[in-house]
Amino acid sequence: MTYRVLFFLVAALLVLGGCKKEKEFTIRGKITHAEDQTIVLEELHTNSLKKIAETKINKKGEFEISAMTGIPTFYLLKLNDQSFITLLVDSAETVTVEADAANFDREYNVEGSAGSDQVKLLDSKLKETRHKLDSLRSLENLYAGNPEYDNVRPLWAEEHDKIIEEQVEFSTNFVRENPFSMASVLALYQKLNNQFIVSDMQVMKTAASALNSIYPKSEQVQALYNNTLQFVRQQQSEEMRKFIQEQGSNSPDILLPDPDGNDVALSSLRGKVVLVQFWAAVDRASRIQNPVLVEAYNKYKRKGFEIYQVSVDVNRAEWVDAIDQDKLTWTNVGDMEGSKLAAAVYNVQSVPFNYLLNEEGEIVAKNLKGPALDKALAQLLD
Length: 382
Fold this sequence. Notes:
Layout: H1 3-19, E1 23-32, E2 38-44, E3 49-56, E4 62-69, E5 73-80, E6 83-89, E7 94-100, E8 108-111, H2 114-143, H3 149-177, H4 183-189, E9 191-192, E10 195-196, H5 201-214, H6 219-247, E11 255-257, E12 263-265, E13 273-279, H7 284-300, E14 305-311, H8 316-325, E15 331-333, H9 340-345, E16 353-357, E17 363-366, H10 371-381
């Protein structure tokens, strides 16, 4: 699919999703051996359940429930707290459920709801995987103490890894192939052995972005989008920490525009001692530190000292005014969108914050202030 076609597809989905009003949906069905029992429909929120409706199942095992929604929404259809199925229902759908009370949550048929079909597929696959793993554990326990145990154990370990690998591949492919489906939210939050099954960050980012563009008001989509941003930041921060602690060589490059719109790379200053200073024009602590930096710059610039100052501002006028008012004559860059990538790569949690790089571009110190900065520069340049 070309980018142009994808653009128009997303635009069309935005129009359709943005204009969608709440409409009535209906869930009807037949549950054998459940005559005169009460069946409840609850809306699934991120941290709670909300009862939407309930009704009595008649003598024939039949029931019908209607409610309103404007977007695909997760519901629990419950006979009791231990016996329920998950449905993903869109507006105006007529959903038919057939099951038996004895195995209501394990074996059921659903028609008229594509989202509910996908939910059933995801749940069934995960239950199958857990059953295989449980059977393998039972076999291991049965053979404990058997003379052949040490010989067959490696084979079981290999089978265990294969089962998990198949589940990961299944769930990841599901999200990759259905980025605009709300069912992908379920796939991304399913766990196996207390770990999320889908660990491919690019797949997660694609789905979170796609769903947020279509269903920005969905509570689950908002949670997924925010969690994805958090995971990305954690991953980037961990990579940077590992880089600094274990490698300590060649700092990650930054390429951002200066006030004139010219892109300036951090690597272009290689051969000089460079202070990579993160700051914000609207941050009082950053502005207080600027005169100290001016003093250090004037003292050491002839000896090969340079400052590469990265702004995390979002207002260009305030940024440019601060540069002029504080008389910052060194390299100043920023994309006026928070310079988020640079800040994340360098694990900057707050400003002001800095890293000192030697002439080879190696990080030799961080978060230097006042006398500590002067001392470090003196050791490197005097």
